[in-house]
Amino acid sequence: MYKESSIIKDWRNVDLTFGLIYPNHYNLGMSSYSIRLLYHIINSKEKYVCERICLPENIKFPASKDFSSINHLRSIENKILPKDFDILGFSAHYENDFKNILWILEKAEIPLETEKRHGEFSRGSDEYPLIIGGGPAITSNPLPLSSIFDLFFIGDAEPNLNNFLGVYLKNKSNNNSFETLLDKIKNIEGIYIPILNNKTKRVILKDLDKSPTPAYQLLSKRESDKKIFEENYFIEVNRGCPYQCKFCISSFHNSPFRNKSYNEIIKAIEAGMEYSDFEKISLIGSCVSSHPKFSEICEFILDVGKTFSIPSIRIEHITPKIIQLLERSGVKTITIAPETGTESLRFDLGKKITNDKILETLSLIKASKIKNAKFYFLIGLPNETDEDIEEIIKLFRSIEKIGFKENTLRVNVNPFIPKLNTPYEFQCYFYLTGNLSNFRLKFTTLKRELNKISSIKIKFKDPKKIINNARLQTLFSLGDRNVSNLLLAYYFNGANMGALRRAEKDLDFSIDNYFNKIQDGYKPWNF
Question: Looking at the whole model, is its pTM more than 0.85?
């Protein structure tokens, strides 16, 4: 099924086994740098083995009503069942994947709740795998998963992962209890243990040069029409973001902004060329163009005969020189994120970019060999009015005059999701029941008007479904321990909107009341 550069070890010669789980499909997991990094760090220890598990295609919720074989969940490398690992580690990037985490555990015949796995510390710690989690969604707020996970990594994993695994292995070797294990782990900074409710600081890797770039990477060569970046070699350029946009978790949860040094990046590229077979390098970071030697990095890649891709690029960083480098790399589309059509709303977000600058930049793209642009916009932002939606439409009517060809402008419009520990953490006004119809109308209006512009290619799902999913994501993003119970009830009822309504009723829980509480300043989690 998979043609890739995986690491396969003999289980008879290892002391610790780690199942690394991306709770979504294989192509997404293989496009995650954190999965590649963790896989490398753990497998770099001779006596540790790390194998990957991904969500199968076409599943049904809950797993008890899904009749596919448990064998669908075996690890990619040695086809091991999840429950046969010492540790199962989930990398959670999006709240909408929480239901997938529960499906994986249930399908693997592992009790979903910590209390059911470990009771009152009466069972041996090796009866079930230790269930741990990390990633952006968990650093932002682990509480909706607090009854399910044994512990969480808050912040960067590099400073404490090996320390944690060493403590775990010593506990396993001495056949100590689960209670003893938690007592030892609670002293490791950056690890939150819900059953102990210990105070936790977010761990920060201050020097990004100390984060190893895997020279031998997981590169997938499979034949598929669902590939994303699976064949690319990943280089992390920076972490965090210097611009502090008020909605962005990277600006606040990954602060401070750190660049990997130019010399380390060049060494990583050279090592990758020696050990891995690839044509293209994906430069990883929330703002790769903010690296002080960004253009030099791009030039080096091109000079050694490789090409590169980048995520979205700051509009003010797009210069004739940068466009020329992107052209040389064969880039077909430049991705930008104006977020709004209104300058005042954009400035309030922290993006000090005028509409004139956007139009000027798009004229540069149109005059280049690239000629395609992709846009990201947010709606449902604090202080947003119906006029702000009209301004998005007006902006695109101005862009149309530049003369882009049919379907060369791709537009993504997403609902704003408030995140804890960001300046907009209390802003969930548009998700109150009384405001949902107007929220949906904004999507419908944009879809109707933007579809009239021939240069725009826009993919819109059902506005009602978009808003319902965003409301659920907002609930899990801002949720407390009570929302953990709601998550379980939602999952067992089928993990759809009807299931959410049943869960609200059964638990006598009002999402509206909870959102009003948040708007009044209730903060369930702080790292």
Answer: yes
